Amino acid sequence: MPELHPLLRLPPRTDEGTVNVVVETPGGSVHKLSFDDERGVFVLKKSLPVGMTFPHDFGFVPRTKAGDGDPIDVLVLHDGPTLPGVVVEARLVGVIEAEQREKGGPPQRNDRLIAVGVKSRTFGRVHELTQLPRELVDDLERFFVSYSTALGKELRPLGRAGAERAEALLDEAVAKR
């Protein structure tokens, strides 16, 4: 059995109870990057259509498994983009609950956790999704719908919930691993 890459050996949570998020795709990128755990490298998965970029850093929580079989996804709001492979200590503030369908396939849950970087000067004091401007959360939801469409999938938002629900979803993803 191959040895796990150090990023995949990180615990989902820090000793302080915050979350370790491994950035795959930096904010502002037109390229969706994914961590290939077998090779231990970041690979280009898809380029977005002209004019579309990731609004903030997008990554995953190590040692988790979401409903789609991949590690649970997290969008991290902080002061600016980082780089692939950077581990951001983050606080979950909410979730955009969603159902995703691939062409002809059955719908499956693909919730998008929203977190803030705890060291962020701009977002570091946010603890709940409701503390963010509604326009920002609306924009994030629209991004995820458009992003899924660009990947040939359909994403249907089901609702939004706060930090408590996001934490419960993370706990479920940790238990599935």
Automatic annotation (TrEMBL):
Task: Give this protein's Gene Ontology molecular function annotations.
Answer: inorganic diphosphate phosphatase activity; magnesium ion binding
SUPFAM superfamilies cross-referenced by the UniProt entry: Inorganic pyrophosphatase
Q: Which EC number applies? A: 3.6.1.1
Q: Does the keyword Hydrolase apply?
A: yes
Keywords, in A-Z order: Hydrolase, Magnesium, Metal-binding
- Keyword Magnesium: yes or no? yes
Name of protein = inorganic diphosphatase
Give the species this sequence originates from. Gemmatirosa kalamazoonensis
